[in-house]
TrEMBL record:
Keywords: Cell membrane, Membrane, Transmembrane, Transmembrane helix
Localization of this protein: Cell membrane
Membrane topology (UniProt): Multi-pass membrane protein
Membrane-spanning intervals of the chain: 12-29, 61-79, 260-281, 301-323, 407-429, 435-457, 469-488, 500-518, 525-541
Principal location listed in the UniProt entry: membrane
The species this protein was found in: Komagataeibacter xylinus
Ranges of residues in domain ComEC/Rec2-related protein: 240-521
InterPro entries found in the cross-reference section: ComEC_N, Competence_DNA_uptake
Superkingdom, taxonomy of origin: Bacteria
A GO CC term attached to the entry: plasma membrane
NCBIfam families: ComEC_N-term
Name of the protein described by the UniProt record: ComEC/Rec2 family competence protein
Pfam families named in the record: Competence (PF03772)
Length: 699
């Protein structure tokens, strides 16, 4: 207890951790808690507050009340956010004419190198079939226009097109990426592709500030790409105005392999550079005036001006979650500066994280918030722990040590942030980039001192039509960064595929990271134990021996360090990417005839041990069922007497399958439906949700 009293000033930092724990608990439940569960969580919040007020002098009561109350509040926030969203509509299964108002437009690069526009529509109505007369969709719909469509809609326009629609996809592996959950909280109904050219109706009235900003963003992106063609212009449009989808997928993969993918996403780094540049310019300008330098609070004025500029930059680039988190942190830093407190601290991060989780509880399980919190927490705690050593070297009489201390700052920042984000990348991508320190050590300073200053100058010159004067030098710097990315991506082991870190392992990692960063003293080093266990956990777990896609069109067999897929030689790229993320293995195709490792295929039937995988609808060959422990018949037209089987209807009903083999040889079958349970965002079998019709009171 005495040790806890010594940590008293840092105990409040654990409240956002408990809040996140309650949110994670809600999403981990295999069932919906409902109104009774929500009432229980609310009662726990009230009881915790009462205990805190009645026994404030008891440390154990304060700790217990804080943890229980914050966790219950997190569960309550997640439940409320889930149930305030409208239900999924039942989208037409055939091509249909639809109309709606354009919310946003982004450029999407196709696999053949061509470009197509993807438009987000609201108020969508269907104009033919049984869907006529229905009220407009309460959710947005994303439609990709044809590549040869000359239409160039802007936000606020009306759009009519004939399209083939699809609901959000089911997970390709139990416990994998859940597109339905993301679409549920994003207010999306699904996506589609246009079959004909679209008809545009120009907006008759103003579409509001959001529509005006989206239109300006689109126009500025086109001007940037016109003045700076090619990949450099695509990257410039991405980091200056938040243009989505304009960078080629291959180029994004190269940046990801080099550990530079964060440069292509507007987040804390870009906002810090923008605010830092504006603050330097304002403070220098004020210092030129003797009266301002002597009598005005120049530092505070420059900080407020930088915050306003940062807010404008966040709005211009689309106000994505990482940028909003960074802006909130920057706002807290400016407030601390005005109050004479330290601008950057773990308390500011705790407040920012708590606010973001209260506004968007679903962000806790998304990549952007996890990466942001891990990186910022590691940077703040790491530099606080190393400050005595760095400060001593910075003021040392030996000039070599002073230079080394200055050079150590970017190196330490790259190591701390990259190391903290590495397990998060393992969980979401199943990859590790060992050379990220080398790439960031050179690319980040170049982005700070050359690329972004010229980019801001280009935005300022656009009103005069002279943006090319600044974009060309900016392009030189972007060319160097792109060259560096390609160079690092070609190094040996630049991108290593590893088994994905599971949800439990990711939670263990964050517990260890919080323990390491939030406690004071040597006891914090105990946080290294769960961090190491979490990073090693993927190799401690058993890989699945068989994976089945939810549409029964694809199967994958793990054998001798490879993932073999079939039938056919062209597997679904989305399912294959997800399976490789989970297994961390290179892929190949199942042979039509022959043996690969423990897999023997003949006549559309593959056998691996006592598992028989059937791709053909023909009757079974004599003796096929002998010695079979599990039959997987994708066509689902026949089975073996007394043998457990998985068929097309089972996949339709239960979603994706993953079959594991334990050490004793027994098989364990896991399904997507069993793991996700009955939640509001889990669609019923067949991929459709509730019809877009008004429900009766009983319903």
């Amino acid at each position: 207890m005495a040790w806890l009293w010594g940590q008293n000033s840092g105990l409040v930092l654990w409240l956002p951790v408990a809040l996140a724990g309650g949110i994670i608990a809600y999403f981990a439940l295999p069932f919906e808690p409902g109104e009774v569960g929500a009432a229980g969580a609310a009662l726990a919040c009230v009881a915790s507050l009462a205990c805190r007020l009645l026994w404030p002098e008891w440390l154990a009561v304060r700790l217990g009340a804080g943890v229980v109350g914050a966790a219950a509040m997190g569960l309550l926030l997640a439940w409320g956010q889930a149930w305030r969203m409208p239900p999924f509509p039942d989208l037409p299964h055939r091509a249909v004419h639809l109309s709606g108002q354009v919310m946003g437009v982004e450029v999407q690069r196709l696999a053949d190198g061509t470009q197509a526009l993807r438009v987000a529509l609201r108020g969508v109505r269907f104009e033919d079939g049984i869907n006529m007369g229905m009220p407009p969709l309460r959710r947005s719909l994303s439609v990709r226009l044809r590549a040869d469509d000359p239409a160039r809609p802007i936000p606020g326009d009306g759009l009519r097109v004939r399209a083939l629609l699809s609901p959000p996809a089911f997970p390709d592996v139990p416990g994998g990426y859940d597109a339905q959950r993301r679409a549920w909280f994003a207010g999306q109904a699904g996506h589609g592709r246009a079959l004909e050219r679209a008809t545009i109706t120009p907006a008759q009235v103003a579409s509001g500030p959001a529509g005006w900003l989206a239109g300006r963003r689109q126009a500025l992106a086109e001007r940037i790409r016109a003045a700076l063609p090619g990949t450099r212009g695509d990257i410039a449009a991405t980091i200056l105005v938040g243009a989505d989808g304009v960078v080629a997928p291959r180029e994004r993969e190269v940046f990801a392999d080099a550990g530079l993918a964060h440069l292509l996403a507007v987040a804390g780094l870009h906002l810090a550079i923008v605010m830092g540049l504006v603050m330097v310019v304002l403070r220098t300008g004020l210092a030129l005036s003797e009266r301002a330098a002597l009598y005005w609070p120049c530092r505070q004025i420059a900080a407020v001006g930088a915050l306003l500029a940062g807010g404008g930059y966040v709005l211009l680039t689309g106000a994505h979650l990482p940028a909003r988190r960074s802006l909130l942190m920057a706002g807290l830093a400016v407030v601390a500066l005005l109050a004479g407190r330290r601008p950057l601290s773990l308390r500011a991060l705790a407040v920012a994280a708590a606010v973001l989780m209260a506004l968007n509880p679903e962000g806790v399980i998304e990549l952007s918030l996890q990466m942001s919190v891990a990186a910022v927490m590691a940077l703040i705690a790491g530099f606080e722990a190393l400050r005595p050593a760095l400060s001593g070297w910075e003021h040392d009489d030996v000039w070599l040590r002073r230079v080394a201390a200055r050079l150590a700052h970017p190196l330490l920042a790259s190591v701390l942030a990259g190391s903290a984000c590495l397990p998060v990348g393992m969980a979401h991508f199943g990859t590790v980039q060992p050379w990220f320190v080398l790439a960031n050590l050179l690319a980040v300073p170049l982005m700070s001192v050359w690329i972004m200053p010229w980019g801001l100058a280009a935005l300022g010159l656009m009103s005069l039509g002279l943006e090319k004067l600044a974009l060309v030098p900016m392009g030189w710097g972007l060319g160097v960064v792109a060259w560096l990315a390609h160079l690092v991506a070609r190094l040996p082991m630049a991108r290593m595929g590893v088994p994905a870190l599971g949800n439990v392992g990711l939670c263990v990692f964050f517990v260890g990271l919080c323990w390491l960063c939030l406690w004071v003293g040597r006891v914090r080093l105990l946080g290294l134990v769960p961090i190491v266990l979490a990073v090693l956990s993927p190799w401690m777990m058993t890989r699945p021996v068989l994976l089945l896609a939810p549409d029964a069109r694809m199967a994958g067999i793990v054998t001798q360090g490879h993932l073999l897929t079939g039938p056919g030689t062209h597997p679904d790229p989305f399912a294959l990417r997800e399976w490789q993320r989970v297994t961390g293995l290179p892929s190949d195709v199942l042979p039509a005839e022959g043996t690969v490792g423990q897999v023997a295929c003949h006549g559309g039937v593959c056998r691996v041990g006592d598992i028989v995988l059937v791709f053909t609808a023909r009757p079974p060959a004599p003796g096929l069922c002998r010695g079979t422990g599990l039959l997987v018949n994708l066509p689902g037209t026949w089975g073996c007497d007394g043998v457990p089987s998985i068929g097309r209807f089972d996949l339709w009903r239960n979603g994706a399958y993953a079959i594991y083999r334990w050490v004793d040889g027994g098989l364990v079958v896991r399904t997507d439906r069993a793991m996700r349970g009955a939640r509001p965002w889990v669609m019923r079998p067949g991929g459709a949700g509730l019809p877009n019709l008004p429900l009766a009171q009983a319903e």
